[in-house]
Amino acid sequence: MNEHKRLYKIQVISIIAILISIFLSFHYYQPQTSNFCPFGESFNCNVINKSPYATIDGIFYFLTTDMNLDVPLVKIPLPNATVTLVIFLIIFGAAYSIGKNKPFWGMKREKLLQLLRVLLYISLAYAIYLAYVEAFILLNYCIFCILLDVCIIAALWLVIGIKKKAKKKVKRRKRR
């Protein structure tokens, strides 16, 4: 698959992830739980989205409560879905800029590819942590969270396939 197709697919995946993240962020801020995604006993987004793990400070809660580590509980009440929204906005912008061969935040192609890889590897690691929390602590799954995980994996796979541009060889003339 050529680079332009990969970049286009990354942009489409980013839009899907952005929409899902907006939806999850909206429901996080709702005062009561809603019936937006109960698909049975073990598939209920409300359980995930209203849990102490639904925000960035959920990591500290996990380390303190579930891992019994002496870690201070730091309050960062920013929903994971909102962080994912920001990350995929950046991914979309970077992929679009690479495709148009334009800088994004002052970064050119190679730095943007590096940014994409770093963001997606960090997102994958965080998604694995959240999947662990869903499967082994909350004993519940969020179908929209799983879709975001698929978006992260697919975007990472596409980014990994984009090769660095080879440096042009400069022809040297032989001196006589």
Helix content: 55-70%
Number of helices: 6
* Total count of strands: 0
Class computed from helices, strands and strand pairing: mainly alpha
Structural account:
It contains six helices and no strands. By secondary structure, the chain is mainly α. The protein has a single domain, classed as VKOR domain (de novo design (two linked rop proteins)), CATH 1.20.1440.130.
Task: Give a quick rundown of the structure.
With 176 residues, the protein is mainly alpha-helical.
Give the secondary structure arrangement, pairings included.
Layout: H1 3-28, H2 45-49, H3 58-66, H4 80-100, H5 109-138, H6 143-160
Helix pairs in contact: 1-4, 1-6, 4-5, 5-6
Please give a handful of descriptors for the protein shown.
de novo design (two linked rop proteins); 176 residues; mainly alpha; 6 helices
